[in-house]
Design goal:
This protein has 100 residues and is an all-beta fold. The protein has a domain at 18-28 and 45-100. The chain has no helices and 9 strands. It has strands spanning 20-25, 28-30, 47-49, 54-59, 62-64, 69-73, 76-81, 84-86, 90-94. It is globular and about 40 Å long. Mean pLDDT is 81; it is low at 1-6.
């Protein structure tokens, strides 16, 4: 199993897959839907990047109609350039820092 020694965060270590240095251009994430029932959390993001990822860039991307976030970003060094989010439960969620 791959071990990421990039920092001391235990959630970023011992991860089998680490995505990094990825650029998305002119992408759309729409109508992701999860019916969890009336008392549960409806998690269905448009775009998401997990904590083990880094250097992710979105250029001119759009997220709409998702039952959770348009973007749910836990990754490091994430950039959103000319991106739009509308009609989602939450537009943008940055957990680990990022720039929009």
């Amino acid at each position: 199993m791959y071990t990421d020694k990039k920092d001391n965060d235990p959630q970023r270590q011992n991860t089998a897959i680490i995505d990094h240095d990825i650029t998305f251009n002119d992408c759309t994430a729409s109508n992701n839907y999860k019916n969890a029932g009336p008392d549960a959390y409806w998690n269905a993001d448009g775009f998401c990047a997990e904590k083990a990822s880094d250097n992710i860039t979105y250029n001119r991307c759009t997220a709409f109609g998702n039952t959770d976030g348009g973007w749910d970003v836990k990754s490091y060094n994430t950039y959103l350039n000319d991106c739009v989010s509308y009609g989602n439960k939450r537009a943008y969620r940055f957990w680990s820092g990022g720039e929009a």
